[in-house]
Amino acid sequence: MQEAIIKGIIYGISVFIGIIAGIGVTIGVDFFKERKQNIHDKNNLIFEIECDLSKIKTWFDMINELKNYINSDRINQFNGYFDFSSTIFVTANRLFQNGKLYDYLSKDGIKKFRKMVHIFLQQEKIRFPIKYFNINKLC
Fold first, then answer.
1. 130 neighbors 79 (Cβ within 8 angstroms)
2. Is residue 129 within 8 Å of residue 76, measured between CB atoms?
3. DSSP 3-state assignment of 83?
4. Beta bridge partner(s), residue 83
5. pLDDT single digits (tens) 24-64
6. Structure letter (DSSP) for residue 81
7. What are the extents of the domains in the chain?
8. Which residues on neighbouring strands pair with residue 126, listed in sequence order?
């Protein structure tokens, strides 16, 4: 009888230790997954920002080209294409919605980033040449 009680206690302690070990493993795996996801998110955010900045540089180059066409009175020959819909904000929007963007950018950086996103998402495509372009509106 006493032996059965001791076996029962040992069995109970074994189950308890197994549960604690299972909780520890689950917490460790979740921590590892979260860390891996954070690294992945940070790399994707950097990629998106670099991509969008290169597009902005391309648009600035096109604007300079447009200015040259305007200055040489050849605006009708300019065939630029500003495609604002090609910007990438998938990871940034997801990180903003779940609050993790604050881990990667300062509050001022987030304000600037959201303003940029808002501007790009409000635009459709701007196409040149504009056949009914009024050059007087530029002045």
1. no
2. yes
3. strand
4. 125
5. 999 999 999 999 999 999 999 889 888 888 888 888 888 88
6. E
7. 2-138
8. 82
